[in-house]
Design goal:
Elements (H helix, E strand, L loop, with lengths): L5 E5 L8 H11 L3 E4 L9 H5 L5 E4 L2 E2 L5 H14 L4 E6 L12 H13 L10 E3 L4 H10 L2 E2 L6 H11 L4 E2 L2 E6 L4 H15 L3 H9 L4 H4 L5 H7 L2 E2 L1 H13 L5 E5 L10 H11 L8
Parallel strand pairs: 1-2, 1-11, 2-3, 3-5, 4-5, 5-6, 6-7, 7-8, 9-10, 9-11
Length: 287
């Protein structure tokens, strides 16, 4: 799968009615993959695939609590038959605050992958990636999938994942950014508002502690230093430097999420275009 170095990640502000447009715009700009957040159903990816020709459509992530493994395997087989080689399943455990039935992440994920492997149409390992943060889950990535798709992580985690996984596995971190169009306070407010939920979730905060962030840095919505590293803001040139920090740390592919003001919906084409001009250059002409 040709993910290239640069992809886009969309959350709930790009609702399903915009999925086809999002895939078309992302492909035209030269991005290699479009990652769909919000625990998407595999069947919901179809409009994106129909509206584009080459771009990889990836889930970021399918939540293991939302599917039975054979169901996921069957849905993948059906969509892969129609769009061969274009869907990558990002799979993840979510976080303990979201479900009363939460089990140990490693045990649950291992069992889920076992269920996929035992299905009538098992998903090939190179068509799956895990949202892994800690060392044991990263080891599982190496053993059972193409690699890892971590979320809300600093470049130090990217470096750690690369060292843990070696050179053969995929490391594809998500990076949320805010393009500052002349109001740095507003841009920081968007970044801080976005971060507030994740800084209240134990899997993310425990991971940040592994890389030197203290309880004081995480408390009360996070320090400015923490916010600026995890959710960089600035011009397209400044944001691109943050993307390259993950590449320099060992990422193969960075999934950029361009955050928008609260209440905004639709495809953020202007932001995607501004970043593409710095990351990719002019899109290739097609006949």
């Amino acid at each position: 799968m040709k993910l290239t170095k640069f992809g886009l990640w969309i959350g709930r502000s790009v609702t399903q009615e915009y999925y086809g447009e999002a895939a078309r715009v992302a492909e035209e700009l030269g991005y290699g993959a479009l990652w769909v957040g919000g625990s998407p159903r595999v069947t919901n990816l179809r409009p994106m695939l129909e509206a584009s020709e080459r771009i990889v459509i990836a889930t970021g992530i399918v939540n293991v609590w939302a599917y039975e493994p054979p169901e996921l395997a069957e849905e993948f087989a059906a969509i892969d038959a129609d769009f061969p080689g274009r869907v990558l399943l990002g799979i993840g455990i979510g976080h303990p605050e979201s479900t009363q039935e939460y089990e140990k992440p490693l045990t649950k994920t291992q069992g889920f992958l076992d269920g996929i492997a035992a299905s009538e149409h098992p998903v090939p390992r190179e068509r799956m990636a895990l949202a892994a943060l800690g060392p044991k889950m990263l080891d599982l990535c190496f053993e059972r999938t193409l690699g890892t798709h971590p979320y809300f992580t600093p470049p130090a985690h990217t470096s750690f994942a690369r060292e843990r996984l070696g050179t053969a596995a995929l490391v594809a971190p998500e990076l949320a950014v805010v393009l500052d169009r002349g109001d740095s306070d507003a841009a920081y407010g968007i970044a801080r508002g976005y971060s507030s939920m994740y800084l209240g979730l134990s899997n993310y905060t425990n991971n940040l502690r592994r890389f030197g962030y203290t309880d004081e840095a995480i408390a009360d919505g996070g320090t400015r230093e923490l916010i600026d590293e995890i959710v960089p803001q600035g011009s397209a040139v400044q944001v691109v430097a943050a993307v390259h920090a993950h590449l320099d740390a060992g990422a193969d592919h960075v999934c950029v999420q361009t955050l928008q003001p609260a209440g905004t919906t639709g495809v953020p084409a202007d932001d995607w275009r501004a970043l593409a001009a710095e990351l990719i250059g002019e899109p290739a002409q097609t006949e």
